[in-house]
Each structure stands twice: as structure tokens, then as C-alpha cells.
Amino acid sequence: MNWKTDYRSFYYQGAPEPADLNLRPEETALLTIDIQNIYMHLSDDPAERLRWTPFHDRMTNIVIPTVKRLQTHFRAQGMDVLHARIACLLEDGRDRSLSQKKPGWNYLLLPKDEVSSQIVPELTPLHGEIELTKTTDSALTGTNLRLILQNMGIKNVVMTGIFTDQCVSSTVRSLADESFNVIVVEDGCAAGTDELHQKELETINMIYCHVLSCDEVIQVMGLQ
Amino acid sequence: MNWKTDYRSFYYQGAPEPADLNLRPEETALLTIDIQNIYMHLSDDPAERLRWTPFHDRMTNIVIPTVKRLQTHFRAQGMDVLHARIACLLEDGRDRSLSQKKPGWNYLLLPKDEVSSQIVPELTPLHGEIELTKTTDSALTGTNLRLILQNMGIKNVVMTGIFTDQCVSSTVRSLADESFNVIVVEDGCAAGTDELHQKELETINMIYCHVLSCDEVIQVMGLQ
Amino acid sequence: MNWKTDYRSFYYQGAPEPADLNLRPEETALLTIDIQNIYMHLSDDPAERLRWTPFHDRMTNIVIPTVKRLQTHFRAQGMDVLHARIACLLEDGRDRSLSQKKPGWNYLLLPKDEVSSQIVPELTPLHGEIELTKTTDSALTGTNLRLILQNMGIKNVVMTGIFTDQCVSSTVRSLADESFNVIVVEDGCAAGTDELHQKELETINMIYCHVLSCDEVIQVMGLQ
Amino acid sequence: MNWKTDYRSFYYQGAPEPADLNLRPEETALLTIDIQNIYMHLSDDPAERLRWTPFHDRMTNIVIPTVKRLQTHFRAQGMDVLHARIACLLEDGRDRSLSQKKPGWNYLLLPKDEVSSQIVPELTPLHGEIELTKTTDSALTGTNLRLILQNMGIKNVVMTGIFTDQCVSSTVRSLADESFNVIVVEDGCAAGTDELHQKELETINMIYCHVLSCDEVIQVMGLQ
User: What's the whole-number mean pLDDT along residues D51-74?
Assistant: First the structure.
């Protein structure tokens, strides 16, 4: 792909190419959100399982390896690797925001110590890395991440995780509104369907972030 | 339309219908965002003007009359009518967030006292109504709206404005994360294209809000 | 003491007595801040140790037993007991706010897993209780406590902890600005000197909180 | 005075002198809070008027001239001059936080367009300067000031206004927790009594801010 010209929606058709990115290591962090055991669980209902097969395939074959690869590169450079996950602090979930208390797909009762709420084993945070829990979709609204990133001197956030159109989009929008420069890694994210993933990337690209492939991030940052 | 079954994306296909809404007047406010003169301006470039004709038509014929109608109903019941618009406090725009400082479509230099940044004449706030300026896309991130609404005892926010996939979606996501119950009025919003509008409503419906038509809002709230 | 007439500063001299408190159990939480091992540590410098003796005596003989007593009462009623402590997430403390990075008494490098940053053994949180870490003095500015309390339906916060004129005062001010009804337990708090403690209680009483003794809290809430 | 050694409370007795300040003009703003007409109003009750005479004298003879002098210097250098005042957006004050709704001295019903809520004539903001209204004591909790200052690249805030132990202290604490470097101008602030003013400056100095005289600020910044 070519991040300077791809993923353009109606608003940016014909707009000039963006300037080159300048992601200084001490000002750049990698953030991964919500790649938790629960989302890798296969449904007992065969129809549901089939419906979610493309998502699970993408997670296993593309997203998780991509995030792992980026984490390895960032750690090798001494750059910050952060993790956020959906988890409530109270076992009965009273601390959750309304968006996670309402019935339906986003109804989430994931107490912080349960296995289902943990980050998947392949991406378990290393000792000393920041891991935040949230009961909101935006990782900024429901945590102290904004303040922490500013205290750390971080200006650029490289985003990975799920789901592109939900927590990823909400977090990207919050970060951009808080004046962070956001990079979304297209092969480091997934949505329930590939169409939702693609459409959301078009929606947020150029206006709230720049969408790059993992290869492009590595090249732009000189991580090879 | 039927708000209980329409605008379902992949995640909510086959999900049960949501419960009836209980929008008590003293806990419900109408919020309109970013219907400002600048967005009704017709480009001097004929190709650009043509490209934006469907949006302008929708604004003039559907969105602005719908918002006006809802405002009239809310005012008649003594309910709160709030307004937000994009505008910077400094004439040089240094107070803007990065998402509105970067080159491109969302580059916005709209000093608060300039005509282009004002709300369109048809929807001018009445004396005594709250009008907020913001230099962010989410009306929560860049203002004190969250605190104000809570102080006023508001639990339900009826959302209208533009653009569905940008400031409307960002604001809806922030409101839901802050535990407000959000109603998005589908004929009270617009995006650059009808497809973007429809897709975004599917993305945010059920998870961050309920999408209703103006007629449905009026019926559900017993405003006739 | 008499909470309706005591701890009045210049501004409230002669002001009418406040109305009775109505602290419904399901809307009331107990919050204790910063009673951590480090603050119970005795200095190796005899002069420093002597200077801090009144504080340590008060902590051991009054504050910690008072907090313990309140926690026991709150737990017995099924009410929420929350804990906050100063601790950074990164071992090098880059995530700390400037107020805790600057040289001096408030320079705090307390990584979250170190013994010195833990809550004192007498007040160790029970399994399932909320424990927050912060790198700020106000427990609201540096955490998601405000959102969590609102999600839990908490309207009244009973405050205990240290130091009265620093983190306690900052947190009380933030809570009041966020429209929580705040009770400060005078024998559940301490400052470096008794004079600082008394003066701060006068400063915040009536305007940001009501200052009660533990006995008064127990009586007002009918906890006996 | 000598800002490096004065206004020390118990915690900082014997602590080393702080390092020199480096207040770069493009990163430094002047903020004045709550010097509004209502606070200059003389009570009809002779006893009340007498009680408040020292405050009014200090405001007229010291604080307002000091703030004016600083504003003139900052404007001459092209530095940002900001203003905050207590004012509600709704005439019935429903948008106020609880700390300003409760009966007593801090009960404030100051609709934003009323004369009593305006900044005093001597300090009226110039066209183009930022003026914020708030219904909280901290100017950060109740406005978008934190975001605006960060967007403007401000790192140092020079604070003036009233009352030292209330809105000034609350704002200073919020700013420090948000990692701003705060300077409080001792002759640019006032409390109900001189003792409250002095005690509060000791409480916040070194830990949340540095307390300087106007002369010291001018000298340190090279504004002469």
C-alpha cells in the first residue's frame, strides 16, 4: 500500500499528499488495545463460529503477528510499548460505563483478574510495561492514559488492536482531539468484517490519523 | 423506519430488539453540533460545488428543518436545547487541537467572532441557551459539556448535526463512554455522502446510541 | 466536636448551620488516600525523626485505627471501600506529573510494585475492592476515579488519608468541583503538623466539604 | 522577598533552594482568575463591610495594580494573557457544580451576562484575549483550559487572582497535577484575611508552585 494516497474517503479525494512523518523514538509509543482472550474464543454455536471465522483467521494470521513484530522492534529501540484492555475493577461490573452495561454485543462483564479479560498469551505485556484497564471504548476517556503519555513526553502514538470501528476508532479520535499525532497500523487492526475494517480506516484516515501498513511504519521509522 | 431493527451492522445482526426508551423531559437535552455558515458555503469551483450538491440539498431540505422542528418541540416542553460549534478563541488558532491544525479538509481556522463560524441563521440559539465553542471534533473532549450536562441532571442526549462520521460520531462515542444514553436523529444529521452517513449510523447504532428518525423521537417522547 | 459549627474560617463566620446530611448507603463510598508504607518510615536522621514524631504518633494512634474502624463499618453494610495510593507505573517514573517529579519533599519515585509504595498492612485492601494508583496529588486528576464513582452511582464520598493540606485537600477540591458531596473525617486525616491539619480543615470545610469526626459520621449514617 | 527561601511550610524547612526559573516567553502565559465586580461590592451591613475592609483595600491598592502591571508587561512582549471568571451559562444556574450550588459563602449565582459577574473594569480583557467562564473553583476542572494551554504550547503559568485559599489554590493544584510549571504572584492574589493568604501560600509553595513577588517575576523574566 501507499499511505500517502490510500484510504481516502469523500472528504480527501484529490487532497495533496501529507508531509513525511517525523517519528522521533523518544516521542513515539506503541499502543495495543483489547486483544484479549475473550475475543479469540470460538462460539459453541456453529453458525456464529462460521460468521466470525474471517475475523479469527485475520487475528491469528495477520494482526497478532504484526503487533508482535512491532512490539519487538519498539522494545529493541527502547521505545515505550503500552497495552490497554477492557476490564472492570469490580466483579459485578458496576464501574463500567453505560456503553458496556447495555444489553447486546458490547455488553461486557470482564473482571480484571479473570482469564477471559487477559491479553492473549502471544502479546502478554513484559514486566515494567504499562497495562491499563478500561470500562469504556476510548482508551482515553476511561483511563489516565492521556496524562501519562504527556508526562512521558510522547507526541506520536502508533495504534494497533481491535475493533477498528469501535475501540480503535474511539481511541484514535480521542488521541487526535488531544493533539497526539496518531498512526494506525492497518494490518495491526481488525473489525468484525473486512468491509467494516476498510470503511473505518477510510473514515479516520487523514483527519484523525495516518493509516500505514506495518512495513511502512518500520520503514518510516527506520526500524530495520 | 423502525429504530428497533434498522441500522444493524455485523455485530448486532440477530440481536434482540432493545427495550423501550424512557426519556424523561427533565433528564433529556437536545444537542446540535457544527451546523455553521461555513459548511453551507458553496465552492467557487464548479466541480467541487457539484460534488457537494447532495450534501447541501440534504442540509437545506432535511437536516436544518428537522433540527428546527425538534428545537421547537423541546423548547415548548421547557427542555434544554444546547448548541456546539467549531471555533477557536484566538484569531491565529493556536488553541486548536492538532486534528484541526493539520492540512487538509479538517483544517479549520474559524475564529469565534467571524461570520463563517456562526451557527446558521435558521438555528441561531435563543437568548439563554447554552452555546459552546470547541476546537476538537468531540464536543466533550474540547469543552466542559460533560460536567455541565451532569450538573443539569441530564441523562439522555438527543444528537443532531454534522458530520455524521466525524464530529457527530466522535461526540456520540464520548457521550456513551461517559454513560449518557444517546439518541441520534438520522434525519437530523448528514455526512459528505449518503453512503458515509448510512455506514456510520450502522457503526454507532446499538453500541453507542440508538438511531431514530425525528418522527420516532417525537412519538417516543410524546411530544406531539 | 460539632460539625455544624466547628472548623469555620473567616468566610463562614456567622453563617447558618448546614442542613442535615442524607448519606444513603448505595450512594456513599469510603475513600482512603496515600496511607502507604513510605510515610510510616522513620528517618535515620534523629532530628528529622523527632520533627516527624507527632505525625507518626497521630498516624499510629488515631488515623489508622479510625480508617480501619470506618472500613469495617462500611464493609458490614455492603458499602464501597476504595483506596488510592501514589505510585508510578514505570520504574523510572517518567509517567509522574511534574508536581511529583520536581526536587523536594514531594519528589516521589514509588514504582507500583515496590514495598514502600504499598498501602500499610493494617489497611490492605480486601480482594475485590478498588485500588487506584496515581502520580498526581488529586486522586481525580490522575486516575479514572471520577468516572468510576459516577458509574457506580456514588454521590457522597467519605474521605480519609494523608496529607490533609496536600493530596486530601486537592482530592476534596476536585470532588466538590465534580459535584460530589464530600465528607472529610477529621480523625481519619493527618498533616505534617497539627496546625497545618487544623488550618486546612478550616480552609476546606463548608465550601468544599463537611468536616466530621468518625463518631459523627457513624452517628449520622446510623452505622452503630 | 526572596522566592527561593520564603513561604516554606513544615515540609520544606531546610530543603535546598530551588533551581533558577527558565520562563521562555513563548511557553509562558499569565492567568488571572475571578477578579470580578461582585467581589468588589461593599456590603450594606456596616459590620460585614468593616470585616471585609482589609480585603478591599488590598484589592484596590495592591492586587489590581499588580495584575494590571503584569498584563501590560506580558502584552508588550506578545505573551498570552488569559482570564477566567465564575459565571454560569444558564440564568437559573443549573449548570453550576455542587460546590457553587450549596448554601453559604460560595453559593454563587452569577449568570455570564450580568454586570456582577464581569471582570472589574481595570482588568477588562482586550479584544482577542481568551476569557473563560467556569462554575467550579478550579479553572481546569470546569473549563477546557488545560487542553487550550497545551495546544498553545504553554508550559509555565503565572497565576494571579482571588481567593488565594480557594479558586487560586484549586487551580494551582490542578495545573501542577497536569504538569504545568506554576508561578503564583504573591502581591497579585488575596484572600479574605491576610493570614489565610499567607498560610495558603506556604501550603502550596515549593510543592505545587513557586511563590514570587511581581518584582521578582519581572526580574526573572527580564521584562523590564
Answer: 98
Q: What is the pLDDT of residues A14-39, one digit of tens each?
A: 899 999 999 999 999 999 999 999 99
Pair D70, D217: CB distance under 8 Å: yes
Counting one residue from chain B and one from chain D, the pairs whose CB atoms sit within 8 A come to 51
Q: Which of D51, D104, D173 lies closest to C207 in CB terms?
A: D104
pLDDT tens-digit readout, D90-100? 999 999 999 88
Residue B125 CA to residue D180 CA, distance in Å, equals 36
- Can you tell me the mean pLDDT for D126-152? 96
Beta strand A130-134 with A80-86: parallel, antiparallel or unpaired? parallel
Residue D66 to residues D73, D118, D153: CA-CA distances in angstroms?
11, 19, 25
User: What's the pLDDT at A40?
Assistant: 96
Q: Between vectors from CA C197 to CA C52 and to CA C95, what angle results, nearest 5°?
A: 75
**Cα–Cα distance, C184 to B163 (Å, whole number):** 46
Residues of chain C in contact with residue A145, where contact means CB-CB under 8 angstroms, are none
The answer to whether the beta carbons of residues C162 and C40 sit under 8 Å apart is no
Count CA atoms within 13 Å of residue C143 on its CB side.
Answer: 27
Q: Could you identify the residue written with the cell 529493541?
A: A76
Q: Where are the beta strands (DSSP E) in chain B?
A: 28-33, 80-86, 131-134, 156-162, 181-190, 210-212
B104 neighbourhood in chain A, CB within 8 Å? 12, 15-16, 18, 206-207
Crossing angle of helices A169-177 and A194-204, rounded to 10°? 10
Judge whether residue A210 has pLDDT over 80.
Answer: yes
* Inter-chain CB proximity A174 and B174 less than 8 Å: yes
Contact D150 A150 (CB under 8 A): yes
Give the nearest chain C residue to D193 (CA atoms).
C10
Q: Which residue is closest to B165 within chain A, CA to CA?
A: A203
> Looking at residue B42, what DSSP letter applies?
P
Nearest to D27 by CA among D64, D74, D62: D74
Q: SS3 of B40, please?
A: helix
Contact C23, C221 (CB under 8 A): yes
A180 → chain D, closest CA residue: D151
- Who contacts C13 (Cβ-Cβ below 8 Å, separation ≥6)? none
Task: Report whether A131 contacts A83 (CB < 8 A).
Answer: yes
Omega of the bond leading into B163 within 30 degrees of 0 (cis): yes
The angle at the Cα of A154, spanning C93 to D23, to the nearest 5 degrees, equals: 80
Chain D residues interacting with chain A (CB cutoff of 8 angstroms)? 147, 150-151, 178-179
Which ipTM score applies to this complex? 0.97
Give SS3 for A27.
helix
Provide the edge-to-edge strand list for the sheet that holds C130-134: C130-134, C80-86, C28-33, C156-162, C181-190, C210-212
Write out the residues of chain A at the interface with chain C, using a CB-CB cutoff of 8 A: 89-91, 94-98, 128, 130, 134-136, 141-144, 147-148, 151-153
Query: Does the predicted model carry a pTM greater than 0.95?
Result: yes
Q: List the pLDDT tens digit at each of the 224 positions of chain C.
A: 899 999 999 999 989 999 999 999 999 999 999 999 999 999 999 999 999 999 999 999 999 999 999 999 999 999 999 999 999 999 999 999 998 888 777 788 999 999 999 999 999 999 999 999 999 999 999 999 999 999 999 999 999 999 999 999 999 999 999 999 999 999 999 999 999 999 999 999 999 999 999 999 999 999 97
Contacts of B89 in chain D (CB under 8 A): 130, 148
